[in-house]
Amino acid sequence: MSTPTFVASLxxxxxxxxxxxxxxxxxxxxxxxxxxxxxxxxxxxxDDETLSAAGLMHQVLQRQGSARVxxxxxxxxxxxxxxxxxxxxxxxxxxxxxxxxxxxxEARRAVQVLGEGxxxxxxxxxxxxxxxxxxxxxxxxxxxxxxxxTGFDHVPYPEAEDEGMVQDGEDLRRQLLAxxxxxxxxxxxxxxxxxxxxxxxxxxxxxxLAISDWLSMPGHPPPQPRLLAxxxxxxxxxxxxxxxxxxVDLSSQPLYLPDDLPLRGHRRACLPLGxxxxxxxxxxxxxxxxxxxxxxxxxAAFVRGTECFSVLKSxxxxxxxxxxxxxxxxxxxFDSHPLRRRTIGAAR
Length: 348
Description:
Elements: H1 8-21, E1 38-43, H2 48-62, E2 66-73, H3 79-86, H4 93-115, E3 119-126, H5 131-136, H6 169-183, E4 187-191, H7 198-215, E5 226-230, E6 267-272, H8 275-286, H9 289-300, E7 306-312, H10 319-328, H11 341-344
């Protein structure tokens, strides 16, 4: 959750276009879970898996299902967090690397709490802030993205599954495809492409690209998986309570997706959380000590009575052209959007 937000003009454009999206009509229907679901949660940074889907994973496991979490970056470029932990105004590359190592270890502890050892965890270890450049300008292995914080153009963490892998978009897409094939999920949970954070939005795009490839493979059996897009970063101090001076317990209240998040033809659904779901979510978030020190109120704002998602249709993942439309749907006011078909389409 530590990458820079998009430019202010994006926020203004979203405000101008939000009226067309329509307000939330009542309470979204409940998200129905079956027996034996296989849920795959894709998270850009350590803690996003817990903020978005801790209760969902717990309920899937309670119904004799399985859960797998893939955390793509080490979250190592959160400057405010590194400055706070080191006491340095100008941290060095070694400080960011140490911070990344700590966050990866925190993720292991948090996921252990969520599933009591039953959740499979993949820590890919890419650089915080690298996903958007990997998507739009560093697609090929011969031109990897180099972190301005750690100085590496490949995964430097020995504890990461991808140690040594160069930071390019094509290799990440292929790895996500391999994970999909290995997991064969019935539920795929990933960031909304409208997220107001570059890593989050980019991972949403990578997810749709990989899902498209997976569903297009010969012999892919029905039924189609359900695609659930979550939201962590938005505007106007959403979620309520996230900007408080200290953490506030709002767990008795539901949390819905914001009214000004464009619907884009998707329906929404919310999973009601029970007392044990929320207790596990609190406990898992407590493992993220580095984040509690700098954004405790933000983390607490996601421990609510619901976890809500935009429910995409499988066809929403089909082809680069449709994937790009997902992102550009309400951003058409921009004269020069950085993501164009020629940018990554030629790399296919």
